[in-house]
Design brief:
BTB domain-containing protein; 59% helix; 16 helices; Potassium Channel Kv1.1, Chain A; alpha/beta; binds zinc ion; 8% strand; 318 residues
């Protein structure tokens, strides 16, 4: 192996006045060679307890330290430590649809060398893409739906399968309810092509794994049966006291049909659109408990949101 010829200096992370040379192999095939970095020993020791111990062991200070990590991951870590402006730009410039994939290598290597601040900044950045409450969901989802309209803006919508993997690997369970729900309402029709369906953005089904899919199926089934049960149980108040004249019975039937439809609307994506349930209610004329039904639709949405961790068997404790 002719290493001398294959070593190239990193364009921005080889500081001429640095006092620590590191080399790391580029990902992929062996013949892609190594990248050389030259950085500042003291600063690296200050931010990373692992580097601190490693470099304290001494050895020849002129020697190049061969790192076991990929050159790409190491470059991302060193960039975050030594060129903070590039690191910030990287966070901002990575499309939300790809950020959980593209930034996970950095979190992994930052955790490995205990550069905790960097790992935490990236985790927070990814976490903030996902709504944590129904109120946040209601603010965020209309923007996603707006962004879905063009290919250019659909990149701004966070992708759920990669987010779930990210959340599981780095223990960020607060992302999971919204991400699982969002994945559950994605169309699986175009799994192979990952093409955008009229109702959903393209999910990275290729990133789903066995456990995730089981959780997803379980969650979808739970949501469905819960709401179908509600449809059965939630009846028009007119029928509650018995002895109903024929005219009122007709009203009651109409009312019950409306109730069932409202709940089904919420089940099928009403969490995604707060106005959908209300629009359904308003489409029905002459129903006797419109006001109560509007309240019910609002409650059903909160129940759905609150129920997500249970439906998808998500443990929210870190
Ligand atoms: Zn009624």
């Amino acid at each position: 192996m002719d290493q001398e010829q294959k070593q190239t200096r990193h364009v921005t992370l080889y500081f001429e006045d640095g006092d620590l040379e590191l080399s790391a192999r580029k990902a992929g095939s062996d013949d892609e060679g190594c990248l050389l970095f030259c950085v500042y020993r003291a600063q690296l020791r200050r931010v990373s307890p692992v580097f601190c111990d490693m470099l304290a062991l001494g050895g020849d200070r002129k020697e190049v330290v061969e790192m076991p990590d990929s050159a790409e991951d190491l470059a991302a870590l060193l960039e975050s430590v030594f060129i903070s402006s590039s690191f910030v730009l990287r966070l901002w410039d990575t499309d939300p649809s790809r950020s959980a994939v593209e930034l996970s290598g950095l979190v992994r290597i930052a955790r490995k060398y205990q550069v905790d601040d960097i790992a935490n900044v990236v985790i927070r950045h990814i976490s903030e893409l996902w709504p944590k409450s129904l109120a946040e969901w209601d603010k965020t989802f209309p923007t996603w739906m707006e962004n879905r309209k063009t290919t250019a803006t659909s990149k701004l919508i966070p992708e759920p399968a990669s987010a779930i993997r990210f959340a599981n690997e780095f223990n960020v369970p607060s992302i999971l309810p919204a991400a699982f729900y969002f994945l559950a309402v994605q169309s699986a029709e175009n799994i192979e092509t990952a093409e955008e369906s009229p109702h959903c953005t393209a999910a990275r089904w290729d990133l789903t794994e066995h456990t995730m899919l089981l959780q997803l199926i379980r969650g979808r089934d739970h949501m469905r049966s819960e709401f179908l049960r509600e449809c059965q149980r939630d009846r028009c108040i007119v029928g509650f006291h018995g002895g109903l004249p024929a005219t009122l019975a007709a009203t009651r039937d109409k009312c019950n049909a409306a109730r069932a439809e409202v709940l089904l609307t919420i089940l099928r994506g009403g969490l995604g659109n707060p106005d959908q349930g209300h629009a359904t209610i308003n489409a029905y004329q002459d129903i006797c408990c419109k006001r109560e039904m509007t309240k019910r639709a609002t409650n059903a949405r909160s129940e759905m949101w609150e129920g997500l961790p249970g439906f998808f068997a998500i443990s929210l404790t870190q």
